[in-house]
Amino acid sequence: MKIAALITAKGTSELKNKNLLKINKRPIIWYPCNEAKKVNDIKKFFVSSEDNKILNLCEKYGYKKIKRPKHLSKPNSKHENVLKHTINYFKSHNYFPDIIVVLLGNAPTIKKKWIADCIKKIKKNKNITSVVPVMLNNDHNPLRAKKIKKNILVNFIHSKKKISSNRQQLPKSYFLCHNFWVIRTKEIIKNNGDQPWSFMGKKVAPYIIDKSIDIHTMDDFHLAKIILKN
Q1: By CB count within 10 A, which of 16, 150, 188, 217 is most buried?
Q2: Can you identify the CATH homologous superfamily of domain 3-136+174-229?
Q3: pTM of this structure
């Protein structure tokens, strides 16, 4: 089974050069690059970016450069289009991996074991389309969410059943982490899974972890430093 790792990182963001900010004297992007390199199942490594600083740095870490067009590097650019661009690059070089391990360049909370476990899980069950890390978060349970209608708070989800104000009594709600995803390549092409991550396919298996943070602001950056220190 051919397995490739793909770092996705763009230079344009609210927090300037966020992927290159340093934690413990290492650029943030080094963390996913380094952990993926330790996984024996991954044989090829790539980086997709429009930013030459990111491309050149990842090349030093052993990642082959894929120059991403600028129209796929805007704030509203979607991962599904970046992944399709990568697959077209693979095809043009007569390479087609069975699985792509998507690594997000702004997420330093990642471990070799997590990646290896997710790969093992998808290899073991051919019906699984993807395996992704998730975190339990009932503080932000959808049944507690509100929206504003005519300047009044109303339930985001309408339910005829009684909803407890105690989060422990609500159904467990899990949220996708944005540190890495293990996806069958053919599912990215089909793109027929649940929104908004339709490129993960229809049978996405969870891998539950305790902590994850992807960096978009300086507050995120400082929190990541604390998490990594601990």
Answers
A1: 188
A2: Spore Coat Polysaccharide Biosynthesis Protein SpsA; Chain A (3.90.550.10)
A3: 0.94
